[in-house]
Amino acid sequence: MNLEPGRSAFFGAGPAWLFYGAGALSLALLFWGLARRSGREPVGWDPRRWLLLGPLWPVAPVRAVLLALAWWPLWLMALGSALWQAHLWLFPFLRGPLYPGFSWAMDWLGAVFTIACGALFLLRFIVWFKGPAPVSLWALLLGSLTGFSGFVAEAARLSATRPDWAWSSSVGMRLAELWIGGATDTALLVTWWAHAGLGLLALALLPWVRVAWPGPCAPEPPVAS
Asked: Is it the case that residue 14 has pLDDT exceeding 90?
């Protein structure tokens, strides 16, 4: 049972160094943006607010649920990406039964993230059409496109390689079954790099996402001593 897909299954074609170079640039922009935002808005970076969404639950529970379904899977997928890089560069531990479980978890985390971003984007025009947007609209659109392109890339590689562990990518495999004849090298190249580009752009712009905290959730201005 082959659980170690080749490089072409993930990268399609093209140099890997370009992806890692773009990833390094994206991380640099992420940390630069975090430093800029934390310097400008120290009140807004309360970990209870940004990690747990604590003040939002009693005031806007629907918004809190959707934000949590987008926010927490995002960080879990980032952790999964870090684990995959550790597997590639440090020690190949995602083998045997671990890889299907890892693939299944990443697949469903991506599905939840994409649906939550899309729901927040649509509800902005259906329910929350008055006042400021609850979350930066460009961020919700970018998140939806990144998640959707990820499933298209997953479907492309599964339809091209037909691995025996494809069942573990439940959502991607459903799309792959519609991709009759399998993906060409060009399709793999375009879909993978489109997803990678959108994902790295979202990572670089993450510090600039703005959330409109309603009513009592709004951060209190700092009091001058």
From this structure: no
Q: Is the residue at 220 inside a domain? A: no
Residues of the domain holding 138: 16-212
Which pLDDT tens digit goes with each residue over 38-84?
766 545 556 666 666 766 777 778 888 898 899 899 999 999 999 98
123: Cβ contacts below 8 Å, ≥ 6 apart: 66
Whole-number mean pLDDT of the chain?
79
Tell me if 224 is assigned to some domain: no
Give me the CATH number covering residue 84.
1.20.950
Total of domains in the chain:
1
The answer to whether position 191 is within a domain reads: yes
DSSP 37: H
> In one letter, which amino acid is 155?
A
**Do residues 16 and 196 make contact, with C-beta atoms less than 8 angstroms apart?**
no
C-alpha–C-alpha distance, residues 176 and 161, integer Å = 10
The predicted-structure confidence for 161-196, as pLDDT tens digits, reads as follows 777 777 788 888 877 777 655 666 777 778 888 998
Strand (E) or helix (H) holding 132: none
Answer whether residue 9 is part of any domain.
no
State how far the Cα of 20 lies from the Cα of 26, in Å rounded to an integer. Answer: 10
- Picking from 1, 145, 135, the residue whose alpha carbon sits closest to that of residue 60 is 135
With a CB cutoff of 8 Å and minimum separation 6, the contacts of 13 are: 185, 188, 189
210/82 Cα distance (integer angstroms): 26
